[in-house]
Every structure is written in structure tokens, then in C-alpha cells.
Amino acid sequence: MPDVLVAGTPFGLQVADPCGRWLTDAHETVLESLPGVRLEHLSARELSDGVRPRRKPNVVLLETSGISAEYASLPGLIPRSALDGIITGELRWIQSCSAGVEHLLPLVPGGVPLTSASGVHAKAVAEVVLAGILAHAKRFDTRRDNQHRRAWEALDCRELGATTVCVLGVGHIGAEIARLCNAFGMRVVGVARNARKLDGFATVFPQSHLHEALRGARYVAVACPLTEATRGMVDAAALAQLDPSAYLLNIARGPIVDDDALVDALRRNALSGALLDAFELEPLPGDHPYWSLPTVRLLPHDSHSSHRLGDNQIKAFADNLRRFVDGESLLNVVDPDAGY
């Protein structure tokens, strides 16, 4: 009879009770319909105020800032200081509300499986990538500026067919990006830890061949997890492989891209622009150069925003919770050594 705790509010949830409760009656019905499940729901505010679960949880669906100082100010996330009442000796499994788990992994006790929300945000994030690609190819920024100037000016634009997009990371988000780009007739290549054959990708290069993968790409979508192997992966040498017409989209984690190298490339017009949804420091400081670069489009780390976010979280959690109750293998189990 597992005691299940839902703690914190998924980052970016569009509808939540002011007190931080977000489970709907339908969500609770889905979870409590599983054999033996005893459900409790506590908000970040409650846990920060010292409220503790009625029973020590065996299973936790968790949204936390973890060890990240940048995430600590975000609303709805459980602070590290409030995790003591959650991570106890009775804990048997944690599911994170985040696809990336670098902020949580160091806090998970040895032997306790951690599963990620990999796939929960894939459609929403991939749609932002495609929107960014289309806006660039059809020159929507220039069209907006022309409208403000009341300038009736035809523009030279591009079709996406046969254009190469390089996707760094071939997990759920990378695969969904590939699916959408293939629908437009684009040529999709991927970069992963190891080379492999994968549906939707013309080629998947190993990370050791990153430079080769980047050559000839007009669009580069960063969709990989942040690990020691990917930190700073998109550096000056990587950017130098790209044609000045290329466009970068980062919807993963800020530290994967070398900020100084990207700012320099954009200032020199060595790239045509960038859409950035993740940053080394969040919120992005007001004096950061990105704010004033005319070819940069900034998103406040909300490319995952969706009216279906809560439902998607519960569906993924309920699927895994059923597996847990039935003694089956869990999905999206994080490899502590790989970091994802």
C-alpha cells in the first residue's frame, strides 16, 4: 500500500490554486484508482512553512529547486531546505516534474530510483522550435519592423524543404523536433552520446563528431540534457563550423552554450540569430548582452508552457505509478552516471 505524495507545482503550470495546490479532482481520481494508493498533496508554501506529510511517503512526484540557486526563486518549487520531510528512509521512488534532473540528482539517496518527466514537455517545446524556425525562414521579425514603419516591402524568404537542421540530443524532445521538421521536408541530423540509427534522423553522430554534424546545418536545436559531457558543448569552435546564415535555438539548459562565444558570434554576424529559452543565470540579468542584440529572441524558460501540462504530468506519473504497484520496470529511469 504505497503512500504517495505530490509535492510542489510543476514549473510553468498555467492554472493552479493560489495556495499552490494543482491536482484536479480528475487527477486525484486517476491516482487513487490504483490499488492501495494513499494520496497526499502538499504545496511548496506548506512544506516551506514546516508542514510535513501525514505519512512518510514511499513515492513522490516532486518539483524542486534542488541544489540550483537559480531555480530557488521560482514559484511552486520545493526548496532544498524543505526536502527533509520528503526524502526519508521510507522512500522507494521519486519522479521529477522536470525532464532535466541535474538539480535534483545529487540529493537522491543511493538505491532510490529517480525517474524524469522526459516526454511530458516534448510537444510544447518542439512546437516552439518549429515556430522559431518558421519565423526565421519567413522573416517575421523584419515584417513586424516593417509594419511598425508602415513600410510595404516584399522580402526574400526561404522554404524549409531540404534545409538541414542539426538536433543536439535525440531523446523525447529531440525526436519530436525531428518529427515536425520531417513533416516540412527538412533533412534532420542528430547528435547523441553515441552514434546510432534512429527513425526520423538521416544520421545520428556521436558527440565526438559534433563539428562534422554542424557543418552544413542552417538550424541547430539544442535539446540535450545538461551533464558534465554537454556543459559548454556549443563553444566558439562549434559555432565556427556554422555558416553565417545559420540560426541557433536553445530550449535545453543554458550552460550547454558558451554565452561569451555566442554573443561574440552574433555581434560579428557570424550567425544570423538565435532563439534562447535557457540561460546560465535565470532570471536573465537586465544588463546581459542578449537583451540588446537585435537578432536574439528571448523566452523566459517557458517553451514548455501548455494548457495540457498538468494533465501530461499526471498521465506520465500514473503510468509509472501503475508499474510501481504492479512490480514492473519504471519508465524514464535516470542513470546517475550519465546524468539523465
Describe the overall structure.
This protein has two domains: 3-120 and 305-326, NAD(P)-binding Rossmann-like Domain (Rossmann fold), CATH 3.40.50.720; 122-298, Rossmann fold (3-Layer(aba) Sandwich). It has helices at 25-32, 44-48, 122-137, 140-149, 172-183, 210-214, 236-239, 259-267, 309-326, and strands spanning 3-7, 38-42, 59-62, 93-96, 114-115, 164-168, 187-192, 203-206, 219-222, 247-250, 273-276, 296-298. The strands form two sheets. The chain has a seven-stranded parallel beta sheet. The mean pLDDT is 96. It is an alpha/beta fold and 340 residues long. The longest helix is centred in the C-terminal third of the chain and has 18 residues, at 309-326. β10 (247-250), α8 and β11 form a beta-alpha-beta unit.
Mean pLDDT across every amino acid position: 96
What is the string of SSEs from the N terminus onward? Answer: EHEHEEEHHEHEEHEHEHEEH
Helix content percent band: 25-40%
CATH third-tier fold name of the largest domain: Rossmann fold
Quick summary of this structure?
This protein has helices at residues 25-32, 44-48, 122-137, 140-149, 172-183, 210-214, 236-239, 259-267, 309-326, and strands at residues 3-7, 38-42, 59-62, 93-96, 114-115, 164-168, 187-192, 203-206, 219-222, 247-250, 273-276, 296-298. The protein is of the alpha/beta class. It has 2 domains: 3-120 and 305-326, NAD(P)-binding Rossmann-like Domain (Rossmann fold), CATH 3.40.50.720; 122-298, 3-Layer(aba) Sandwich (Rossmann fold).
Give structural attributes:
Rossmann fold; 2 domains; 5-stranded parallel beta sheet; 9 helices; 26% helix; globular; NAD; D-isomer_DH_NAD-bd; NAD(P)-bd_dom_sf; oxidoreductase
